[in-house]
Design a protein that fits this description.
Neuraminidase, 2 domains, 4-stranded antiparallel β-sheet, 39% strand
């Protein structure tokens, strides 16, 4: 009986150790973007990150496109947009890049939809978005582009969807919390819209949009209310970086796991707002943004990785081997006693 109890204990411990989750996360500074930018967007096509528009070092709208090749971690310049825009929304689908809304010079809201074809290296115009606005967020789900929130005279709740097949827009269920300078990311074909601000106040809203039912769900609020932040999905979590308040920029890196809540992660090496982020493979790339609130800019490029995987650890292997040995000895003993 004693041997059997020892076996049970060792076996339980070994299984626990064997399948314990081990996490690894860290930051790496990469080559700077060719020019400083803030309030721009980034999207991914074929493992290349396209950084679109934004404000330059004198606070002017740009039509620049910089391309970061994640394979050799180098920068190049892409074909400029037909229009100079900042605070736009952007997303990619298949081989095309879509830029929607934003501000022209003098902070005039745009309803333009610009489409870049990476195969032909050319820009074209899509149907105009119904509601002109800047500081919005945009995501593709199920082959359609969703443009959410933003600002135009007042903080918006609009949720408008573009179908590239028929080149037309429809109005969908409005976001519950009006906000601009917000962030979003897609996980399991659902859009999570996080943070932002309304008026002069940052909000900690975390709301999920289900395009199938055309409904919104209010989720656990982000721990740190902030605007001018960015979000990217990695594995089964949404990571939310940076942002600004009235007096400082944020270094916070907080991860949301649906059904589990928020986890505080390793902070950014350099706090900033108005930055862009994109996921390629097992890494999130954070680009540009301002290091102080308001009009500030940088060319900073950083790579963040975070993996949580079940591993059969060394200690687990040892304990498991001992458990097997005990089973064998226990079995032999019983056989000998029987004979």
């Amino acid at each position: 009986m004693k041997i059997f109890i020892i076996f049970l204990l060792s076996f339980t411990i070994s299984i626990s150790l064997a399948f314990a989750e081990e996490s690894s996360q860290g930051w790496e500074r990469l080559a700077d973007m060719p020019e400083v930018r803030s309030e721009m967007e980034s999207v991914v096509i074929d493992e290349k990150i396209y950084v679109i528009g934004g404000l330059n070092n004198i606070g002017r709208a740009t039509n620049s496109v910089f391309i970061f090749d994640t394979k050799d971690e180098s920068w190049s310049t892409g074909t400029p947009m037909p229009l100079a825009l900042h605070h736009a929304g952007a997303a990619s689908y298949e081989s095309k890049l879509y830029v929607v809304g934003g501000y022209f010079e003098e902070w005039i809201p745009s309803n333009a939809l610009l489409i870049y074809d990476s195969v032909t290296d050319s820009w074209s115009n899509g149907a105009e978005m119904p509601t002109p606005r800047g500081a919005l967020t945009a995501q593709f789900v199920d082959g359609k582009l969703y443009a959410i929130g933003g600002f135009n005279e007042f903080t918006r709740t609009e949720n408008e969807v573009y179908d590239p097949v028929i080149d037309s827009w429809k109005t969908k269920s409005q976001m519950p919390t009006p906000r601009e300078h917000l962030a979003s990311s897609v996980l399991d074909d659902q859009i999570y819209v996080i943070g932002g601000r309304s008026g002069q106040s940052n909000v900690n809203a975390n709301e999920m949009y289900d395009y199938i039912t055309n409904t919104w769900k209010t989720l656990e609020s982000i721990p740190t209310a902030r605007s001018g932040l960015t979000a990217s999905t990695l594995s089964s979590a949404i990571f939310v970086f940076g942002g600004e308040g009235p007096l400082y920029t944020f270094e916070e890196n907080e991860a949301y796991i649906p059904g589990e809540g928020w986890l505080t992660q390793q902070p950014m090496p350099i706090s900033r707002h108005g930055l862009a982020s994109s996921t390629v493979g097992e890494n999130i790339y954070l680009i540009g943004g301002g290091v102080i609130p308001g009009f500030s800019y940088s060319a900073i490029t950083e790579k963040y990785h975070n993996t949580i995987v079940p591993e059969f650890g060394i200690l687990g292997s040892i304990v498991f081997a001992i458990s097997i040995a005990i089973v064998i000895l226990f079995t032999k003993s019983k056989i000998i006693n029987y004979i």
